[in-house]
Amino acid sequence: MAKKSKPLDFHSKWRYAPAPESSDHVELKTSYGLFINNEFTEPLSGKYFETINPARETKLADIAEANQADVDRAVKAARKAYDDVWSKMPASERGKYIYRIARIMQERARELAVIESMNGGKPIRESRDVDVPLAAAHFFYYAGWADKLEYAFPGKPEVRSIGVAGQIIPWNFPLLMAAWKIAPALAAGNTVVLKPAETTPLTALKLAEIIRDADLPPGVVNIVTGAGATGAAIVNHPGVDKVAFTGSTEVGKIIQKALAGTGKKYTLELGGKAANIIFADATIDQAVEGIVNGIFFNQGHVCCAGSRLFVQEPVADLVIRKLKDRMETLIIGDPLDKNTDIGAINSKEQLGKIKRLVKIGIDEGGTCYQPSCSLPSKGFWYRPTLFTDVTQASRIVQEEIFGPVLSIQTFRTVEEVIEKANNIPYGLSGGVWTDKGSKIFKVSSKLRAGVVWANTYNKFDPTSPFGGYKESGMGREGGLHGLSPYVNLN
Ligand code: NAP
Ligand code: MG
């Protein structure tokens, strides 16, 4: 007689088996000096600081802290390399070096991805599939432009490099931001002094090794580590001809003031608070995935995060229910586990900021929802969070949280949502979800935002410009637009 089979149980919870990515192949030194003239050198400051793994609160390495004299050394190295070698080299030769960097990055992609996740806290699936391939793609893309600059700017009699570029980047996409900065600068014939963020210096230092291995002439790229004071020393150094900054609006304003009247060129890529707009005629399940990607990608540490959700009234209850169901299934934990959807918050400081703003949201009358997931006991973690019962005036609707926190509002008409979406000091990005092409064109052309995605979110490509309006900054990175801040055209 056939054995009676057990009935299927759809209600009890099941878990994914752990699928950790190995970190055995990763080579990290115990301490890193400043990368100047293709060598790691002791800082004149004599100071080092620790960089940690935010998922475990364990030390990864000691990192040199550059003071003003160190920055001066780096700028002088960049100037000498510019005058003696890089500005004189045929552009096609320059392009070959940049291609070489791109290829070595691809060869070392696995190590770069693991280090990015260890140092920054982001899920390995993201560093492996987004950060590292996109970073290499930027070098490939700009390498191609190096010997075609006169075609990039048709009608301009002369395209000249600027000189030494001082570049300062944040901690949310450390390697990718370094690529956004370094690749166009080199392609246009400039030399570079770059400062990674204090909490995430490791992939930039690995990139320094790649640059050395690619045999770039010494001094063409210099990487100096440190905190805000090191960044300020770069901005204020008289030998720097162009400043490229990505970071907070607050620091962007300080830099803009410091540069006023100096004649230095600059670009500022600053904060954001994007509207993600769901119309009733959108494909709801796809839109829910887009909302999740928009706000929970990289723990919400994304300048273009879709942190303000606007849902059209007829589908608001449905969207919120589906969103909550989806949030229950998100896996939070070890960034090196391939199943992980949401990794660690980048630093204790950032975790404190998220908690402070969420408390303000609750105190102001917002209704806060978080899924029931458990969090690891060590490290910095925050549950994906959504707020309803908020208004345009709520602080959590107006201020950038830079964490996995979504605020939800509803709307009735196209005009209403455009007005609400634009009622913010920022203007970096936005999202529109609808079945109607005409609505996409109307809304995307009326949103005061540098990038608007339609029926998708967080899509990036090196050929496509990115940047903001209003307090989200000035200038564009990526594409041809990203080359123009690195050249003089008259
Ligand atoms: P941040 O505090 O402004 O820092 C950015 C970088 O500037 C870091 O390397 C920082 O050093 C350095 N810095 C701090 N004070 C400085 C000063 N007075 N002069 C010169 N440099 C200084 O920003 P964050 O907290 O790292 O990053 C988050 C912010 O970046 C968010 O607002 C986000 O929206 C924005 N962001 C924008 C884009 C974009 O493309 N628009 C992309 C990514 C991120 P430390 O290492 O000491 O902090
Ligand atoms: Mg900071």
How would you portray this structure in words?
With 490 residues, the protein is α/β, with parallel strands linked by helices. It folds into two domains: 31-270 and 472-489, Aldehyde Dehydrogenase, Chain A, domain 1 (3-Layer(aba) Sandwich), CATH 3.40.605; 275-454, Aldehyde Dehydrogenase, Chain A, domain 2. It has 15 helices and 22 strands. The protein has helices spanning 68-86, 91-107, 109-120, 124-145, 149-152, 174-187, 202-213, 228-236, 249-259, 284-296, 313-328, 348-363, 395-398, 414-422, 437-446; strands at 31-32, 34-36, 39-41, 48-53, 58-64, 160-161, 164-168, 191-195, 221-223, 242-246, 265-269, 275-278, 308-312, 367-369, 385-388, 405-411, 426-427, 429-433, 451-454, 469-470, 473-474, 487-488. The strands form six sheets. It has a seven-stranded mixed sheet with strand order 14-15-16-13-12-18-19, with helices on both faces. A six-stranded mixed sheet has the order 9-8-7-10-11-21, with helices on both faces. It is globular, with a radius of gyration of 23 Å. The model has no long low-confidence stretch (mean pLDDT 96). Residues 168-172, 195, 197-198, 227-228, 231-232, 235, 246-248, 251, 254-255, 269-272, 303, 400, 402, 428, 468, 472-473 line the site of NADP nicotinamide-adenine-dinucleotide phosphate (NAP).
